[in-house]
Specification:
705 residues, mainly beta, Immunoglobulin-like, 6 domains, seven-stranded mixed β-sheet, 2 helices
């Protein structure tokens, strides 16, 4: 029900879009015929149209309130139709998608409460070439309705009200006006209670008496090819007898005691020759002696309208179905009567039910929501409640008795007050509904991480972020207009952001936490003016404004860990959370190495490789490369350039010492993070002493500074 009703508001929005389109009757449209399949029956526009309300409508029969129907729309196969769409409506919704074939379109709908739906029609949007139009296909539902009376007795008594249940297959389709007839041998009224129809009879004349009751229908049946909105007269004969005691009728069907129990209620009763004026009578709930005292009746004066003005002092409550009341002179029953003595209308509790939720004791509502309201208390059956500022979508079809009243309310999206007073017969009850802005945890798609040259939506990040450039700033950018989109409201967002920064070795550099962040919806929200701005954070957050070591100063492969989450205490334990890791990725790195190549084989022009030399000394500016797919993991080789002192530690006369400029590639063990390693060198350069180029290969000892 609620999903279907919510379609009404979608329909209103779509109506704004389609108002500029030309609206065409079905006869003047590109369609040549329409066919509706309901159960095993088929109805077509050509054969089953009826003229109702001065326009042609496609008639079809239904048996269920939420009947499913399959619809075919036929058009000329040569027609250049580009698009056919069914405009949404609160009266029905699509069960499956509309399918467009060469010469017809097909769709299936489920109706919503056909009996109570008026002015039904399909609105079809048709696109022909470059033009568009709205085609109106009026539909006319009808149904077979029967009504019978099977009374438990054929005897009635003067002045005694009798109630019978009417047997029908569709109580919703029968109009019940609740009013008593007047001046008939047997007065009657028809009352609807839930899904039941009740016939109340009050006889006035003795002997065999016939009742003939007409009934009007909301949806017709067809008779002689024409729709008929009236059932055949309900005729039945009763034998009316006189009662043992004279029945005295009150001028009121219901009496409500005053707050001050000592203050009587003024009533009028039928006059009777045995009724004495100026006397106090007892009213008890049984004819025999010793009955419970329900009220006292003081006869004050006879009136010109053949009535007696009385003062009634109720001491207990009574309902007519509980039995008759007896007016006694002492212990002797003199007359019989019946009247409802009920509580004053008093709302004691308010319960709210939201879509898909159980009832909860609450009076808090939110703008734009569709809710069920249950009022519990006393004497609610005689109330006429209203909720100024809210739309009451249902009333007659919902439960209403002495202790419970149910309503379905739509809270306007643009409601300007924070309280909806509950009125009874246009008088304030002292009870109200509190209008509170939504505070729901929205997915974190309204938060962007701004790196300066790119932005990422927090909710879309599902793996580590590898950022290759210098991170000058890291900004939390809040898209406030995205929090409330259309009618989907979330309200204020209460956030916590935890920041943890570590270097590439995992050593902690800094911790920071943003607490109690309140992000309010932006101006695009229909409730923008109702959000308090005093606690709302209006500006975005630049992380560098809060941490000691700026992001631009972090070394390569430093790690920034973010945990962005809702403050779950604000949302009843619910909320979203997202953990994000940002790595300052680099493909290579420069560093200075000091190494001691030893046993190098050196090749000079026009010579062979020389003997293994002694330890040399090298100082190199080297380029290291990171392994792809791994975090801060070096590849096992380096390329560098610098100086080498060959045989630097040989101080004998036969030394081969020289200094050269060299470009060297070195191969390191996989554990190249050690301070002391033993690489293999290969490279070449230019000897400054001999002024010749050379090539070298050999092992060495590397000391990493």
């Amino acid at each position: 029900m609620k999903e279907i009703k919510s379609a009404l508001y979608s329909f209103l929005l779509l109506g704004l879009v389609f108002t500029s389109l030309a609206q065409t009757r079905f006869d003047n449209s590109p369609f040549i015929d329409a066919r509706i399949l309901v159960d095993t029956s088929e109805y077509t526009w050509k054969k089953n149209w009826v003229l109702e309300q001065n326009k042609k409508q496609l008639a079809f029969s239904y048996t269920e309130e939420n009947q499913v129907a399959e619809v075919y729309l036929y058009f000329d196969g040569d027609a250049d139709i580009d698009l056919i769409e069914l405009v949404p409506s609160a009266d029905y919704y699509l069960v499956d998608s509309l399918i467009l074939n060469r010469d017809y379109a097909r769709f299936k709908v489920r109706f919503n409460q056909l009996t109570s739906s008026d002015f039904l029609k399909y609105l079809i949007r048709v696109k022909l070439d470059s033009s568009e139009q709205l085609v109106e296909l009026p539909i006319f539902p009808f149904t077979e309705t029967y009504l019978e009376l099977y009374p438990s007795t054929d005897e009635l008594y003067i002045g005694e009200e009798k109630v019978f249940e009417l047997t029908t297959n569709n109580a919703e389709n029968i109009v019940a006006d609740n009013r008593w007839t007047e001046g008939l041998p047997i007065n009657y009224r028809v009352v609807k209670e839930g899904s039941k129809l009740l016939l109340h009879l009050l006889p006035n004349s003795l002997g065999n008496q016939m009742i003939s009751i007409p009934f009007q229908l909301k949806k017709p049946y067809f008779q002689y090819g024409q729709p008929n909105y009236h059932l055949p007269l309900l005729n039945y004969s009763f034998y009316v007898r006189s009662g043992r005691l004279a029945f005295i009728q009150f001028d009121k069907n219901e009496v409500t005691p005053n707050d001050d129990k000592t203050e009587p209620v003024e009533v009028q009763i039928d006059n009777h020759r045995f009724l004495r004026v100026g006397k106090t009578y007892r009213i008890e709930n049984q004819e025999e002696t010793g009955g419970a005292l329900i009220a006292e009746l003081y006869t004050k004066a006879r009136l010109n309208n053949d009535k007696v003005l009385c003062l009634l002092r109720p001491y207990a409550f009574h309902r007519k179905p509980e039995g008759y009341l007896y007016i006694k002179d002492g212990d002797e029953a003199m007359f019989v009567t019946n009247v409802d003595i009920t509580h004053k209308t008093n709302i004691q509790s308010i319960y709210i039910q939201r879509e898909g939720k159980d009832w909860e004791k609450s009076s808090t509502v939110h703008p734009g929501e569709l809710i069920n309201i249950r009022l519990e208390g006393e004497g609610l059956h005689k109330a006429n409640f209203s909720f100024p500022g809210a739309s009451n979508l249902e009333y007659d079809s919902l439960v209403k008795n002495e202790s419970i009243s149910l309503f379905s309310l739509k809270i306007p999206l643009n409601i300007g007050t924070n309280k909806i007073e509950i009125f009874n017969h246009n008088k304030a009850t002292g009870k109200s509904l509190v209008v509170k802005e939504y505070e729901r945890a929205r997915p974190l798609d309204f938060i962007n991480l701004d790196f300066g040259d790119q932005q990422m939506v927090v909710d879309d990040i599902d793996k580590p972020v590898y950022y290759e450039n210098t991170l000058t700033d890291l900004v939390f950018d809040f898209d406030r207009n995205k929090i409330d989109e259309g009618r989907d409201l979330y309200g204020r967002q209460y956030l916590t952001i935890k920041v943890k920064i570590s270097n590439k070795k995992g050593n902690l550099i800094e911790l920071y936490q943003f607490d109690d962040l309140v992000i309010c919806p932006g101006e695009a929200s229909p409730r923008y003016l109702h959000y308090s701005g005093k606690n709302c954070k209006e500006e975005d957050i630049n992380l560098n404004n809060f941490i000691a070591k700026k992001t631009s100063e972090l070394e390569e492969w430093s790690r920034i860990e973010l945990e962005i989450s809702h403050d779950k205490s604000k949302y009843g334990g619910e909320g979203k959370s997202k953990k994000i890791r940002i790595y300052l990725k680099r493909d290579y790195n420069y560093d200075i190495d000091v190494s001691f190549p030893a046993g190098l084989l050196i090749l000079k022009p026009k010579t062979d490789f020389g003997n293994f030399g002694g330890p040399s000394f090298a100082m190199m500016a080297q380029m290291s490369f990171y392994e792809k797919g791994k975090i801060a993991k070096y590849r096992p080789f380096k390329i560098g350039a610098g100086f080498i002192a060959i045989d630097a530690f040989n101080f004998t006369d036969t030394n081969n010492r020289d200094v050269g400029l060299v470009v060297i590639g070195s191969l390191y063990p996989t554990s190249n993070s050690n301070k002391l390693t033993f690489p293999l060198y290969v490279g070449g350069g230019f000897l400054l002493g001999e002024a010749v180029p050379f090539f070298l290969i050999g092992p060495g000892i590397r000391v990493r500074l």
